[in-house]
Amino acid sequence: MAQDLVSMGSGQTRVTRAVATIAVAGALGALGGLGGMGGQSAAQAQGSLAGESIESLERLFWICDYGSIHEPFDAGFAMECSVVWEALKARKFNGDFDSFLAWWRQKKDDEHGALANSRRPGAPEMADLRRR
User: Fold this and answer.
1) Residue ranges of region Disordered (predicted)?
2) Phi, psi (5° rounding) for residue 93?
3) Is the pTM of this model over 0.70?
4) I need a surface site. Which of 11, 45, 63, 98 has the fewest CB within 10 A?
5) CB-side neighbour CA atoms (13 Å) of 48
6) pLDDT per residue over 19-78, tens digit each?
7) Is 27 exposed, middle or buried (0-12, 13-18, 19+ CB in 10 A)?
8) Domain boundaries in the chain?
9) What share of the chain is helix, strand, coil (3-state, %, to 5)?
């Protein structure tokens, strides 16, 4: 399921690599060996999405946002969504959380409604949406 989130050609490799970087750094950090490495790996993970358009990041973000409420998900999905969230916040909002939050509040109902409508009988499932 998490793998389906980023099935967008070359974007899949970038996100998968970013998630792997965070997972390894997090695991090593939990063992006490990496002190300040966490921030660096997060920056590397964001950089791995640098080639994605803002529209693509937005699409992935809304799939994550909707999916986190309405679909079962695992730690891998949550990690990938976190990377997408950070990349979108950095690129579209210059890291400004308040602007990001205002945008989310304004668009959430419409975006979630569109995803919910796409789940009606005969519509693609979430996994299909993630592949688009």
Assistant:
1) 110-132
2) -120, 15
3) no
4) 98
5) 23
6) 444 443 343 333 333 233 334 355 665 666 778 899 999 999 998 998 888 878 788 888
7) exposed
8) 2-131
9) 75, 0, 25
pLDDT tens-place string over residues 105-124: 999 999 999 988 886 655 44
4 is written with which tokens? 């389906």
Q: Which residue has the tokens 């921030």?
A: 39
Check the CA dihedral 37-26-20-112 and report its sign.
negative
Mean pLDDT lowest for which of 2-6, 15-19, 87-91? Answer: 2-6
Whether the CA torsion 44, 74, 117, 113 is positive or negative: it is negative
CA 4 to centroid of chain Cα atoms:
12
* Structure token pair of residue 44: 């590397």
Count CB neighbours of 126 within 10 A: 19
Place of tokens 């950090």: 29
CA 12, CA 5: separation in Å to the nearest integer? Answer: 8
* 87 neighbors 49 (Cβ within 8 angstroms): yes
Contact status, residue 86 vs residue 42, Cβ threshold 8 Å:
yes
